[in-house]
Structure formats: structure tokens, C-alpha cells
Amino acid sequence: MKPEDVEFLFATLQRANPHPASELLFSSAFELLAAVLLSAQATDASVNRATRQLFARAPTPRAMLAFGEEALCEQIRTIGLYRTKAKHLIEACRMLVERHGGEVPRTREALQALPGVGRKTANVVLNVAFGEPTMAVDTHVFRVANRTGLAPGSSAEAVEHGLLAVVPQRYRTEAHHWLILHGRYVCTARAPKCRVCAINSVCAAYAASGGAPTLPT
Predict the structure, then answer these.
(1) Taking CA atoms, which of 9, 57, 132, 188 is between 20 and 30 Å from 93?
(2) How far apart are CA 121 and CA 164, in angstroms?
(3) Catalytic site includes residue 138
(4) Tell me, what's the pLDDT at 214?
(5) Which pLDDT score, from 0 to 100, does residue 210 have?
(6) CA-wise closest residue to 150 among 140, 159, 139
(7) For this structure, is 193 an active site residue?
(8) Residues of the chain with pLDDT under 50
(9) Are 201 and 149 in contact (CB under 8 A)?
(10) CATH numbers and ranges of domains, the chain
(11) How far apart are CA 63 and CA 124, in angstroms?
(12) Using one digit for the tens of pLDDT, what is the confidence trace for 107-165?
């Protein structure tokens, strides 16, 4: 994608949503970390339903440890892979208390050393909690980056590096939020809303389709 097309893409998304934000509910860096860890292969809505009561009872790593793995399992059982996620979250809390004084660390290396925390989760925490211009590549960002031609790549990390190379600095802090929301509500996996898409004029897949109403799955 040409630089002027990248500028058009992000300027358009910014005009439509000047202050994008995560749809996960949280009130601290720890709650954000826990929510993102729980959100793997689950919707934000399902995580929010589970964490609304969970965070009222266990808003800190120490409180979560006291809450315990079995009680945590019961609280999040409506979320997919809840037993594995509960185990990871409890162990992550233990490490936060023992190694970081109960605080969420501000480096990628320390975050990714926590059980259940991969590169995407670390990027979300660094971006949302600490304002770092990271690119968290989930399935929506991966799809939009490849479909549009913004930052094609065969892996999430390749797309991440591609985005960091092409996204203008002034858009980087909010960029992954715009791309997530665009993928979630417009450039969907099935039956994307191409004809009403505000950035279809710079989309490689839309151009290749000859302006078809939707793209193939």
C-alpha cells in the first residue's frame, strides 16, 4: 500500500472514531492483563460478563491468589478453556507478587515471562495500560492488514513488524484499536461489508474483486 493510501486509511478511521478504546472492561493494569489473558478464543462480551463479578472480588494479584484456582474456575466457567486460563492466571498472579511486588511489569520480556501471556497480550498491556505504540495483532488485525494490503504477512509477528514499518507515528498508539474494530464490525471474516466500507478505495482485496458487494470467505 502506498504511503498516501496508508495516510487515507488511518485518517478515515480516526475521523470516524477519534478515541478508540478496548471493549474489555477493566479499571487497572492488572485487571486489563487478566481480561486479555482470559479473552483468548473468547469474545470480549463473554469475558466482561465473567470479570464484572470477578474483579469486584479479586481486583489485585494478591486477592486473586487468595480467591483461589477452584473459585476462579467457577467464576469464569462460561469462557472457553476456562480451566487452563484459571491455572495460568493464578500462576501469573503468583509471579507478579513474588517477582514484581504485585505490580504489572512495564517490559515485554517480563510480561511474556508470565504464564498465559504471549506477544499479543503483552502488546495490549503495553499499549492500553502504559501508552506504548505497540501493535497487538489478533485475528481481526491480521485479516484487515492482509486483505487491504496494509501490512501483508503470513504470521502475526510478520504483520506486527509490517505495521510498525508503515503506520505513521501519529497514528501508532491507536492503530491496532482502529484495525480491531474495523475487522470486528466491517471487514468481518464472513460477508465483509465492502460496499459500505469507508476505506474500500485503498483496499487491495476490494480492487481485486472488481468492486463486488462482498469478498469470498
Answers:
(1) 132
(2) 17
(3) yes
(4) 56
(5) 81
(6) 159
(7) no
(8) 216-217
(9) no
(10) 3-20+135-208 (1.10.1670.10), 29-129 (1.10.340.30)
(11) 23
(12) 999 999 999 999 999 999 999 999 999 999 999 999 999 999 999 999 999 999 999 99
The catalytic residue among 2, 85, 138, 193 is 138
Q: For residue 142, what is its C-alpha cell?
A: 491480521
Grid cell 487452563 in the structure block, residue? 84
Per DSSP, 105 falls in state P
Catalytic residue from among 5, 44, 85, 120: 120
Nearest-10 Cα torsion for 183, 186, 190, 193:
-150
Encoded amino acid at 13, one letter = L
Asked if 159 contacts 142 with a C-beta cutoff of 8 angstroms, the reply is yes
Contact call for residues 200 and 182 (beta carbons, < 8 A): no
Phi, psi dihedral angles at 186 (to 5 degrees) = -120, -60
